[in-house]
Amino acid sequence: MSTKTVSFEDVIYEVQTKRNFTSNSSVQKQQLLKGVSGIFRHGQLSVIMGPSGAGKSSLLNALSGYRTEGVSGTILLNRKTSCYIQQEDYHHTLITVNEMMMMACRLKLKNSVSTDYKKQIDEILAGLNLSHRKSSTAKTLSGGEKKRLSIALELVTNPQIMFLDEPTSGLDEVTASACIRLLRQLAHEDRTIICTIHQPSAATFDLFDNIYLLAQGQCVYSGSPRVLIPFLLNQNYTCPKYNNPADYIIELCDTEPEVIPHFSSHFLNGKIQCLPTNSSSNDASICEYQMKHSINTLQMEIHRPKESTIMQKMKQLSKFFKSEYALSSLQQFLVLFNMMMTKIMRNRVVLWIQLFHHLGCGFFIGLIFLNSANDGMRMFDHLKFCMGCVFFVVYTQIMVPILSYPSELRVVKKECFNRWYGLTPYYLALTFSRLPLQIFFNLIFSSIVYFLSGLPMEPWRFFLFALIGVVVSIVAEGLGLAIGATFNVTNGSAVGPALMAPFLGLAIYGFDFAADVPIFMYALMKFSFIRGGVVSLVLTVFGFNREKLECSDVYCHFDDPKVLLRYLRIENVSLFTEISVLIGLMIAFRALFYLSLRKRFYK
Ligand SMILES: Nc1ncnc2c1ncn2[C@@H]1O[C@H](COP(=O)(O)OP(=O)(O)OP(=O)(O)O)[C@@H](O)[C@H]1O
């Protein structure tokens, strides 16, 4: 069997469903695909069609490997030469079509191939009628152009097998028809193209070489579109002359559900195909057909529950050492870092907003505590100043990734799945590309509040002050990214503040009765990175032999900074330990972020 052909046998896709949200006992297994088989040959454009909820996307996801959990059966295809194009076209913002194509070439083509990709890009874009949109960003493209861009990006590596989920959804009749014609042309250039379409129009129905009709997770027709009408006729169903055969059979499955098991057993759930004999008639209704056994027993299994775990481990190990990417991890990192920096620098609006936000809040907090840092009578103001600075940094850094990251994740998931790059180089590029601006904006904020509040002009003290701001902001951003990678925007914007509440509570707890705080609460308080930040700032501001503060009254209890530190029970706390704990939490949140990404991408 050709390596470009996709065949599958007895594929079952099961999901767990809950009857209600309160009880675990009602967890049930639901079969979305009920042991379907079939074959999609190379050089052909095949369509999986059927009514809504029939299982079309489930089958495409199972065949392409996009879903593996709950999938069992036998699927034979060469995944390394395949690509998957999702229903929604997720593209990078702020970079042009040409730059996206260039990035795809740099990441997906081996170094040995010429690094002058211009000619290749021009050819692909011209073939897909996108040359005139070369310098546009994806945001400004029409629906059809976005779809063609998705295809163009994958065509860079000339994939032999292409899966497309609902490529015509959201397109008007003419554009949808043009899209199907394009897919047909690509398939006839010796590729296997498989797409799902809810209900092809009469104009596009005949463009497919092969149709695979699903209903209730079962195959009810497989074969040539030309012989669908004669087949139905043979089964005593007459498709009215001017009806679209696709509409007719879908309606039949809907209005007469008993035909589903009947047709399904007729086709052995996809093992048999209905193919035309050499009839020269142009009239579909008198075209002759034959039922052909298309599936022989396949050899490669994707799901073997009985395989020993040692064998599984060995396979995983060999996969680890055999890179499935065109570039080394370092090269992937460099290309991604470059692209991310370009995107950050081009996002002028966000840059200006961030600049004004840091300047504005810096001046606001600085003016509230104007020249108060030396006043021995304003002990609580000193504490509030440190808390205000830390709270500002935490809120700024935590909410942005929660709100913005989920949309970026969709592009990354698509690219990772299509083997553009690995998760680790992406993760490192993301982490390092955000650092320079994070440090820059924190320095602006720290400088303003430090000097307006009148803290001592000691460079090393300012350095520590700014360093703590940067460390806290990296910790908070790590938590924000972990939430953004785990939840969608709606859930994340509820989870973020809810998670912050205990950290905040622990940050302000017990400052006014430090002597009476129970030991176990001290242990718990260590987990609050916000408190860690506040304590570190207080130690930086009042520790390291800070001189006595000014006192404008007869007696100032807190004019000696050591008294304040003793009152807060932090006189023996080392700044080094506090920063180490913050770094520990930073690593923990970043690891959580990485694991969350892994879980989402490889489920
Ligand atoms: N994770 C899941 N848990 C429970 N049910 C699911 C899950 N995924 C899909 N389903 C259900 O399985 C059925 C098949 O879903 P699928 O998305 O494959 O259908 P489809 O034929 O592509 O439909 P449409 O044309 O409307 O996109 C639907 O009824 C859907 O609600």
TrEMBL record:
Q: Which InterPro entries match?
A: AAA+_ATPase (IPR003593), ABC2_TM (IPR013525), ABC_transporter-like_ATP-bd (IPR003439), ABC_transporter-like_CS (IPR017871), ABCG_dom (IPR043926), ABCG_transporters (IPR050352), P-loop_NTPase (IPR027417)
Give the way it sits in the membrane.
Multi-pass membrane protein
Q: Which PROSITE patterns match?
A: ABC_TRANSPORTER_1 (PS00211), ABC_TRANSPORTER_2 (PS50893)
Q: Which domain of life is it from?
A: Eukaryota
Q: Name one GO molecular function term.
A: ATP hydrolysis activity
PANTHER family reported in the protein's UniProt record:
ABC TRANSPORTER G FAMILY MEMBER 28, FI02074P
Q: What is this protein called?
A: ABC transporter domain-containing protein
Species = Polypedilum vanderplanki
